[in-house]
Amino acid sequence: MLYLGGDKGWVRKELIPTAEGDPVPPPGQRGAGRGQTDPNAPPRKNNGISGDARRSTAALGKQAFDIKIDYAVKQIQGFLAGAAKSSAQ
Q1: In whole numbers, what is the pLDDT of the chain averaged over residues?
Q2: Which spans in the chain are helix H?
Q3: Is the pTM of the predicted complex or chain greater than 0.90?
Q4: Residue ranges in the chain modelled with pLDDT below 50
Q5: Residue 54 main-chain phi, psi, to 5 deg
Q6: Which DSSP string do the residues of 64-82 spell out, in sequence order?
Q7: CA of residue 46 relative to chain centroid, distance
């Protein structure tokens, strides 16, 4: 969001230095459900942020966005190659 709309008011840039949310659950886990809380875990912040966004920059956002675009283009090219191959048969 900082890359795509940082200058459009979509991001409250003044809050980035304090943008620390709930910890991200380990891969394959969704986090504790109701009634399954860890008594030793720190209290939830429940601010809509997952992880630590304090190091966010527009440059990092551009990198992530470019990776998604590159992946989508490669996937579309793969679909087109598969469609051309099956129509040639």
Answers
A1: 80
A2: 2-5, 58-88
A3: no
A4: none
A5: -65, -25
A6: HHHHHHHHHHHHHHHHHHH
A7: 17
